[in-house]
Design a protein that fits this description.
The structure holds three protein chains of three kinds.
Chain A: E1 2-5, E2 8-11, H1 18-26, E3 33-36, E4 39-41, E5 56-64
Chain B: H1 3-18, E1 21-23, E2 26-28, E3 32-35, H2 42-52, E4 56-63, E5 82-86, H3 93-105, E6 111-114, H4 127-139, E7 143-148, H5 152-161, E8 167-168, H6 182-191, E9 197-199, H7 205-214, E10 218-221, H8 223-226, H9 231-250, H10 268-272
Parallel strand pairs in B: 3-4, 3-10, 4-5, 5-6, 6-7, 7-8, 9-10
Antiparallel strand pairs in B: 1-2
Helix pairs in contact in B: 1-9, 2-9, 3-4, 4-5, 7-9
Chain C: H1 7-15, H2 19-37, E1 40-50, H3 75-87, E2 92-97, H4 106-117, E3 122-126, H5 132-141, E4 145-147, H6 155-161, H7 170-174, H8 176-183, E5 187-191, H9 199-216, E6 221-225, H10 244-257, E7 262-265, H11 271-277, E8 284-286, H12 316-325, E9 329-331
Parallel strand pairs in C: 1-2, 1-8, 1-9, 2-3, 3-4, 4-5, 5-6, 6-7, 7-8
Helix pairs in contact in C: 1-9, 1-10, 2-10, 3-4, 5-8
The chains are: A mainly beta, B alpha/beta, C alpha/beta.
Amino acid sequence: MKISINGKTHALTGPQPLSRVIQGLCKNNPYVIVELNGDIIHKDLWQSVQLCEGDRIELVSFVGGG
Amino acid sequence: MNIKSERLADTVNRAGQTDPFMVGGKVLSSRFLMGTGKFKNKAEVRDCIRASGTQVVTVALRRIDLTRHEDNILEYLPPDITLLTNTSGARNAAEAVRLARLAREAGYGTWVKIEVINDSKYLLPDNAETVKATEILAKEGFTVLPYILPDLNIARALVQAGAATVMPLGSLIGSNQGLRVKDLIQILIAEIDIPVVVDAGIGSPSQACEAMEMGADAVLVNTAVATAGNPAGLAQAFALAIQAGRQAYLSQPPGPRPFAKASSPLTEFLYNESTAS
Amino acid sequence: MKPLLSYESIQSVLKDTSPGTTEALAQEAAALTRQYFGRTMSLYAPIYLSNHCSSFCTYCGFNNRQKIKRIKLSLTEIQNEMRQVSQTGIENILLLTGESYAMTPISYLQDAVEAARGHFTGISLEVHPMETDEYRALYRQGVDGITVYQETYNRKRYQEVHLGGKKKNYDYRLGTPERAARAGMRSISLGILLGLGDTAEDLLALFQHLRSLEKNYPAVEYSLSFPRLRQIKGQGLAPQTIDDIAFTKIICLARIFFPRVGINLSTREPPRLRDHLIECGVTRMSAGSKTSVGGYTLADPSAQDPQFDIQDNRSVDDILKMLKQRDFDPVFTDWRPIPNI
């Protein structure tokens, strides 16, 4: 199953909860902010959201800036 | 804590009591807003915040680098600091709005600096898109601090749209050229009732002082501090200069009159003859 | 000279007896006027269309208790007056009536404006205060500006001298500039009647009123007038005399507080004073004026009842000569007429 994360295509073994992908990529980073297909997904819902083919995930966090 | 910073913190607190700076319902005692970009490392950011007494810092939102683990800037900021999310990267109102909502959703407050730039050569803000974003976000309850090219009509539109302040640039981002558009900023200070925060281009404490002397309500400095030889030292200098400028403004010093040429007496006629009406 | 917009500051300027202060004010005002207006002087003339009035203002020659001959010009008479004035070169006209909603309703004014459009490029009205819709209709027809003086901003004093008609309503009058601004009027002229109330208090209030109008309606071109209370036939009413020195300071203060606002001086004031005050802030003056109804073409001058006595009787040509002599640039018109949309 193909999805895009931060603009790049990733291949997943199959449908899975969002939380698994985040855990895999960001370990236990408490500052991750997640957007799925343009919608902001609150932390509490990561477990219950199932990913499907073609989903676009954006993982962002704060950095120093002007 | 060294003696110098204690004295500074004390002065800043006293200023807050007699000359409060109110933004979005918050009373701030420091008129120095600081950016956190371009620093060598995050520890320096923390040191500068401490040295300057700043209570509001800007941060940006970026995609996480998935290939390596990095400290998050938030770990280096004092817990009581106000985060001002900068929408840098946004090229239009829609993108700016999205970034602001992201930050809020994630629980990082509702203060947003709208920076919409679709000009990569000069980094000039898009005033029109900034107004659009302000309208949307102010309605959603954000405390909006829009960054603009100083323009009175745009500033008025921003007041109407519900902005908490206006933030005119002093000169181009990163240029450290000071108040190149001083006259235009002066107009905003005279005509706009919400706080005017000079942002961008302030390269030295004297320039920050100049902005405050003119009547600006606060300044935002980033590049000058981040790229200094001794960032914490310069941050402290900025804080002192901002205070000096503010005090000067409050004491209303007489300015030089541009047309002080003496000319022939205009009112002698009133006193030479009888003055009955 | 840096006076502050406060009662204390204005009062201390007025009370200061040193000629040095007067001169410093004048120099500052002169410099600002040069900076923002150059040496231009806008010229205009008044035409009184009617002296019917429903108000009883104790200080005015037209008030409804005064036993004067009440006249209202017919359309033909209006045309005659306008032709006469137009021949002198005047392009900015100020049409005046007493405040009578019944005798000079908007339809009458509209007829007069239509007639004016045939002769003048700038039309202003000084008539009874109206509603926004009415101002909008007049604006669309071609009126560029309105003049309305609050006379005094002190409510108590206002009630004491305005005893009849709609003018009794302080708040309605106060809201007039705003209603005109909302209607789209290009220029609005404000003023107080000097001598009626406490001068410093009225000046402060007038200036604050103007500041707030500038903020809320920044597209309007504002101007100020300072008529001085004068004797009218049979009435000894002048509670506070404003001497020429105070008057000069008032003009200067207005210029200093409002560098870009027009300041008007009518023929109420004598030639000598007018000629000097054009250096200190005045940017608009009337010329060749007649202040009685039909004063340019009707009847015998001595039998007319003017609203105020003219002290500067010079013709338009005389005024032009004087202005050129003092290196001023007389301006008859700022623009050519285009439709007001």
